[in-house]
Design brief:
Chain A starts with a strand and ends with a strand. The first copy, chain A, is globular. In chain A, the strands form two sheets. Chain A has a nine-stranded mixed beta sheet, sandwiched between helices. The first copy, chain A, has a two-stranded antiparallel sheet with strand order 2-10. Helices cover 22% and strands 40% of the residues of chain A. The first copy, chain A, has five helices and twelve strands. Chain A is an alpha/beta fold.
Chain lengths: 172, 172
């Protein structure tokens, strides 16, 4: 199984201004298209509750694991959507049950933090939009790492100055 | 006068793990050489107290303005070094007095925040090291912007996967 992080951030390292701020208000169309192309090759997508609420439509056809503290274990809404409290569930077992080979970690921050804490992150696809927010939500705020990744590619993906960085787990 | 921000950050948007963590412990030699090349063409450098304490030696020959709250106005140590409380000093007047044409904003976070708040930032040179810290000090934590910059170049500067992004103030 391969798990990859998909994230868009400002040049000052923010994935959002606030939990109610829609990502598509500031990210580029090229970032959106790239996200869709990665979702299309994902067998399962893990998102947090706030990210799910903001992006229900493009996520509606995926195998979706929505992390939330408002359930204690797993609550299946239908065959392709499960609410899940990662503190009380064996998430890896659930991913295996789904036969997931490629798992997309779509955020927000708490989901990114969980994935790095579990050492699940094999690849990172990071889009940097040419904006500064100042105050906002960082990609991560917890964990104490000095974790090195291997840069696979760097590319400017539009005329507006959006940059896509691709990393993979560094060989140790 | 042109003011530019020089910053190195992790791929999760951190400029340091803590205020006592030496930048050169995790940044690349190529980032250090790039920083030196930009300092060499700077007429004045603005740093915060913690950054100055960590980098006295490479900074010792510059026109240095060290921001600190421990003085109330300006306290000149010698011709090339002045301690300064930006809340009580006309910093721009001081830069003009020095005849500074190119001013380097070297950080840390509070100095970056000050420069963006004053709308002084004409250029940003951002090095992204292929590391994840988790908890740490963000490039900025204050201010409420949706400030767009113009990407001038993007370049991988070494085999370790360090990327250098160059931005300038977007035309409005």
């Amino acid at each position: 199984m391969t798990c990859f992080v998909l994230a868009a951030m400002t040049l000052d390292g923010k994935i959002s201004k606030s939990s109610s701020f829609l990502t598509t208000e500031w990210t580029s169309e090229e970032d959106f298209l790239f996200m869709r192309s990665k979702l299309d090759v994902s067998d399962a997508v893990i998102v947090g509750r706030a990210t799910y609420d903001l992006a229900k439509e493009p996520l509606s056809v995926r195998n979706l694991l929505v992390f939330t503290q408002s359930v204690s274990g797993i609550q299946r809404e239908h065959g392709r959507l499960a609410w899940m409290n990662p503190a009380g569930v064996d998430v890896m077992a659930e991913l295996k049950r789904l036969g997931a080979e490629r798992v997309c970690i779509l955020g927000g921050r708490a989901v990114y933090e969980w994935a790095f804490e579990q050492d699940l992150v094999d690849e990172v696809y990071l889009t940097i939009e040419p904006l500064v927010f100042g105050k906002g939500i960082s990609l991560m705020d917890h964990g104490d790492y000095l974790k090195r990744f291997s840069l696979k590619s760097v590319e400017q993906i539009n005329d507006s100055g959006t940059v896509l960085l691709q990393y993979s787990r560094a060989l140790t």
